[in-house]
Amino acid sequence: MENRSSKEQDAESSRITHQMLKSRTGEFDLESILFLKLRAVGLYELGCIGECLNLERLDLSNNHITHLGPLSSLKLMVALNVSCNRISALEPLAGCENLQTLNVAGNLLCSVETLHCLRGLRRLESVRLRDPVYNLSNPLCSNGAYRHSMRDTVPSVRIVDGERVTGCGSDLYHLCKDMDNSLKRFVGSGAVDVPKSVKPWVEEGYWELKPTQTTIMEETYKQFNEVVQECKELSKRADDTIAQAERALNIRHEPNSYVF
């Protein structure tokens, strides 16, 4: 009996359950959950996550998830992080019509075709398939043109792996960078003698992407909004707890109440 109980507990902790969500968020109604972070908790199955119909931001990174089926009902979700899992298909995300940011770095996406299911997500702006900082990637990233394929597949996407691929200045940026690389190869082949005093036509580090003031402001504003939402959630939980305590005290002091 003890072994069976232990196995049941392991199975319970490996999938998302009502009890897990309630204990982690303090919410009794799953539809009240707006933000959820279940990072590195040993999850294999998403269980009842699909019942959190008003969920907006979800972090499931660093788990053992293989299937995203239950996420298809999360119509209001705007940000999803499922990096460092075992995902090989993204079809369920086609139902997440408000999705704007997606991180799937460190999974098993093998071809660009696995991204075709995202075509209908008209609000999707940022997709991360590779993260060099944490050494996360996908098999499809071995194709050097995968960023362009991502852009062609989902026209609304402006940022892939943190690099702007569409929008103001992006075409000129890539054109000049390609020209610079071509000149380096041409000179390096020995076809032209170049005096040692000649310097590159742009300064070193010129092509490195640097955050603009606008990007910094957008990120700061987003983080501020997240903090505000978390404060609202905490305030709501505190109000609910106080209300429950007041009801309990009122029942206890009613003249016709009996204690058994």
TrEMBL record:
<dbReference type="GO" id="GO:0036158">
    <property type="term" value="P:outer dynein arm assembly"/>
</dbReference>
<keyword id="KW-0175">Coiled coil</keyword>
<dbReference type="GO" id="GO:0005737">
    <property type="term" value="C:cytoplasm"/>
</dbReference>
<keyword id="KW-0433">Leucine-rich repeat</keyword>
<keyword id="KW-0677">Repeat</keyword>
<dbReference type="Pfam" id="PF14580">
    <property type="entry name" value="LRR_9"/>
</dbReference>
<feature type="coiled-coil region">
    <location>
        <begin position="217"/>
        <end position="248"/>
    </location>
</feature>
<dbReference type="InterPro" id="IPR032675">
    <property type="entry name" value="LRR_dom_sf"/>
</dbReference>
<protein>
    <submittedName>
        <fullName>Leucine rich repeat containing 61</fullName>
    </submittedName>
</protein>
<dbReference type="InterPro" id="IPR001611">
    <property type="entry name" value="Leu-rich_rpt"/>
</dbReference>
